[in-house]
Amino acid sequence: MNLRPFLPLLLGAFLLPASMESAHANPFSATSSSTNSLMAPRTNLALGSDAFVVANPRTGEILAERNANRVMAIASITKLMTALVVLDGNQRLNEMLTVTMDDVDRIKGTGSRLAIGSRLSRADMLHIALMSSENRAASALARHYPGGRRAFIEAMNAKARMLGMWSTHFADSTGLNPRNVSSAHDLAKLVASASSYPLIRQYSTTEHRLVRNGKRQMQYHNSNRLVREGSWPIMVSKTGYIREAGRCLVMDTRVNNEPVVMVLLHANTTDERVADAKKIRTWLETSGRMTLTAQSTPRTKLFSNQ
Question: Which CA distances in Å does 10 have to 19, 82, 108?
Fold first, then answer.
């Protein structure tokens, strides 16, 4: 029997598994040998966070990831979506909102500096929700939405679908509810979208803010130590913590003049998530990844809605 006509098929059968494994390991990389050598440090990026994504939002290329499709609780990273829905609603930012008993945390029992009866503008509520992760502020924002809290949560989930966040579900506006879940891939899309809102960029990266509450003035600080240190060009920032989510951090920043989105989920401590972010920055600055990204055209776009 003449096997010559079948040799290409037999050869392909032997080679196909190896080529599929390579594509699965790095679906966004180019196929040149220089790309493969530059990707080598990717496997040595030892972070404490259980799941993470490092991506270039300009090209859509994923630069590093681990457990990026795992659905996890996301804690106060939720408040980025809260901000999107508030701003998309085009409500008056100078309207005064009142904190009521409905805004008290009955899930985790956390406290708040906003006493019942506190009155702040919608802008100030949004500012301290993003900057300091103020839960009663985030709750009041949802409660004062047209249709109330239920309509607000529906708008959050509708916005998630619009952004292609298919592994995401929101149950409240604060992140205190552990049923607020997403994946690192989805949250990278959320951060990229949030970065297009000037007020989110401004409010989430303010180091300190004095807020007037009646006759009192209260000073709030940014919950992200890296913002307070001021050594990074950070455009969007949000931290999060509940027991189910661990310590979380998302940022839109720049490394070597290229945009970078970092998503870090379920670190054990605040120090660990900060150390992870610094490791990523050092890795990008020294590995050549950002140079490659600036010159490459990925086959798949992380930030598409498809």
Answer: 15, 55, 60
